Amino acid sequence: MLIYNHNIIKGGQQMKLSKVKIIEAMERNNIKTQTELAKKLGITKNQLSVILSNGYNPVKATVSELCNVLGVDIIDITDKKYKVVEVIEEPNTVTAIELFAGGGGCSLGLELAGIKAVKYVEIDETCCETLKRNRPHWNVVNADVGTVDFTEYKGKVDVVTGGSPCQAFSYAGKKLGFEDTRGTLFYQYARCVKEVQPKLFMFENVRGLISHDEGRTLETILNVFKDLGYDVQSRVLSANDYGVAQKRERLIIIGTKDGVEFEYPTPLEYKPVLRDALKGVPPSEGQQYSENKRKVLDLVPPGGCWINLPLEIQQSYMGASFLSGGGKRGMARRISWDEACLTLTCSPAQKQTERCHPDETRPFTTREYARIQSFPDTWTFAGSTGQIYKQIGNAIAVEFARHLGIQIKKSIETYKSKKTL
Fold it and tell me: Which of 55, 140, 286, 317 is the most exposed, fewest CB within 10 Å of its CB?
């Protein structure tokens, strides 16, 4: 086993630099020629040609300066057929693998909490572009999680995080165990936990999972985690309790190995409101309402919804929903400056889940969306306007993830300190 630049090269194979990936990194850094790159490295063009030659082995020579100039890790410019497993130089660092990473809400929150992820797995190419754009050094894997082998990380990573969609399982004649979930994305999450054997995992999902399929889906999930050897606890938490100006509830399931203790974060006393989130928000692109919808929402005051409309407009605007049961308070909803926003969705102008700006009759812009989800303005998103809304709407609020991450890091550090006594 050979250690180089905080990476482990397995199997004694020679690692090769990828010219294609180096060219891509040059383009991202506006480096137009190899002569310019060589100058930045402080070497001759001939020396750079040697580095880029097929027979060159970077393990036998220093290429860290090349990575520094291009703003990449060595794994980002090497051929993927050579297995590289990242390890952390600091022995006390808390490490993680994140599945279903999306646009980076949980990823960024855990980073801010001091947790270093060694792999981020995400199937959506645009989401991966967002992650790489903001953190070029992250090991982002753009792949179907079902194709990713995690066995190389067994016993080497502290935490597994992620939240997969949870389809209902078949119960006829089943034992409600791990194999019964095969074919679902939850199975792939559980498989990662089984292969990695982390000290702790965090599985997050929508509050509705509690009642999904009359509670049997959640029952199966908890049973699977217990069968994998984990003590499991679950709780519904509101992001508004943790510095996020949004009434966004998530089910947080925590699993711990023997000896690892976890406590959910304590709610903060102050609950931020929309005014806190959107103060000084920079301009950005956004969707607009149709002319008919705009005329209807013009009649709704801040903090109001369809019930504030004249009766005849209620009936025509809501259609069949007017006679249905339920609160329906998300329809024709204008948010007030002095309340936390309702849960953001993947589309800001859907009839059932409208989130109208307090003063202007329009949906929130993409940057306003990001602010409400507590993304910093420096975090930028790839893709079309619709794709950006989707990335933000699907994310875990950054500040919420940070508070969870602090507790996770505390749990792992406490466990490690006890093991060294």
Answer: 55
